[in-house]
Amino acid sequence: MRSRQPASARHRILERWFPCVLLATAAAAAVALGSLQSVIWNGVSAPPLARALASLLDPGLVASTGAPANTLEPGESYFANGRLALAIYVMLLLGWQGLRAQLPAWRYPASLATLTLALSGDVLAYWVSSVLGPDVRRVGFWFIEVPALAMLVLGLTIQGLARLRTKGTGRVLLLTLPAALGGTMLLRYLPHGALAGLAAVAGLTAAWAAPTVPLPITPRSAVPRALGVVIAVGLLGILYRPRLVPGDIVTGGEFIIAPPEEGVRLHVFNTGWNRMSWLLVGDSRPWRPVPAFVLEHPRHGLIVFDTGVSPEVAEAGESALPAPMRWVIESRSDASCLLSRQMEVANLPLERVTQVIVSHLHEDHVGQLDAFARATFIAGPGTSAFAQEHGLADRWREVSSAALRASWPFERTQDLFGDGSVVLIHGGGHTREDLMVLVSLPEGPVLLTGDAVVHSDWLRSDDVQRIPVDAGLAARLRNQVRVLEHHPDVLILYGHELPLQAPLRADFTWHVRHNTDEQATCLM
Asked: What one-character DSSP code corresponds to residue 144?
């Protein structure tokens, strides 16, 4: 039978090796972040090592990188990555106690103060400068962070020379300068190249001393510190970073427009507005409308595309949403905004609704499914469990993947009525069950994207943000929609964007206006 290791021995291992692990992790993180930023900064001229490591971490970034970044304004992806350097500094500060025995007298607190000074410069360069501008970035980087790191590297190297004469365990510090220079040359980027070498040598020094020199961490304090580091790094790790995915290029083809049927009319409503967390969409997060659409068809009655927010959200806002959605979205509405209420005011009886097409199952698109007691629900693949859970299984029709056919520029479509008036388009990027709808109207087709293309900004950037479940599919569908963006006959209405002005078309009824803040409102 194996004997259980005494608690004191376990504590000693934790006390001695905890700083070493932190410093080694900081070195690895500095190399990873340094590679990403080197590729952004240097473009195609980035060193092979940086490009190789960056391609493992973010293939889309490497594929979309061309010329070197503008040194005055390198772009949001540069800063989004750079802000994560804060986690590296936190790990260095917590692991620095591993050098206490190697930096006696005043040298240990002086090195800790210098490291803290470098951290303050990093905060100015990557965080404060995004608000106060490039002058603050230059001061933080060139006049604080880089000089502080240089002093720290030279100071530790000198301490290594001193220990070399006395044959102390701290003589590994002699490698600090060559390691910092080597890291900078391999990545061709400051400060993370130097920071990686500094962290690696500090970790080796602490590890060298660990078997013989006890470190000043009590067992009671070591575990909370470790948990704190894990939580801090985890939070910093989910900071918004643009997800740049170029996607497949859509080759030439012919977009076939079905002959419009007279009398078809589209009613456009807005049921409230949402604002996403910066964790998912970055700093640009305006309030966006939550539209719902009703197609008035002379032969098929009323057809609804998405039902907007629920009565619960209209009353209580995002607090009515389930976790974790309530933590990453703000939602505003009221009872007069509900689709059912607006349809009654617009003289569109709910009992005339024959079909409800569900773009996907997020709460702000299925909030009023139960208002349509006579309708058949049409939804994407994999949604039958939702229908069963909500008591809608007997009226729920799940689109079969086998029934989908290619119709340029889209790969998976289905003609709902066989006359081209309503064509379902399966996406699968934003959610697995995404459906878009192409509606043939008398004055030209209208594409209702749902959240497969959340807003028009998606068509003007390769950044698919942090929203999709499948970034590759989301980018592919975005590129397919791009083909139609400038088509003279096609109007695109996005999942969370409505034009400030109603289209000048007779086949629309526009039940939307905008307030003074240019936020779509449901008031008529």
From this structure: I
Helix/strand/coil for 396: strand
Q: What is the dihedral of CA 443, 448, 449, 455, to 10 degrees?
A: 80
Token reading at 70: 């503008």
Domain boundaries, the chain: 7-237, 265-521
Indicate the SS3 state at residue 142.
helix
Name 521's bridge partners: 513
Phi, psi of 151, rounded to the nearest 5 degrees: -60, -40
Q: What is the pLDDT of residues 212-259, one digit of tens each?
A: 444 444 545 555 665 566 555 555 555 677 888 888 889 888 898 888
Strands (E), 417-490: 422-426, 435-439, 446-448
| Residues 349, 340 contacting (CB under 8 angstroms) | no
Cβ atoms of 67 and 44 within 8 Å: the answer is yes
Report which DSSP code applies to 390: T
Q: Are 307 and 366 in contact (CB under 8 A)?
A: yes
Please give the structure tokens belonging to residue 9.
């021995």
User: What are the Cα distances from residue 124, in Å, to 130, 131, 150, 261?
Assistant: 9, 10, 18, 61
What's this model's pTM, rounded to 2 decimal places? 0.69
CATH hierarchy code of domain 265-521:
3.60.15.10
Place of tokens 């986690």: 87
C-beta separation of 335 from 311 below 8 A: yes
CA-closest candidate to residue 306, choices 327, 323, 291, 319 = 291
Q: What is the pLDDT of residues 49-96, one digit of tens each?
A: 999 998 888 776 766 666 665 555 566 678 878 888 988 998 999 899
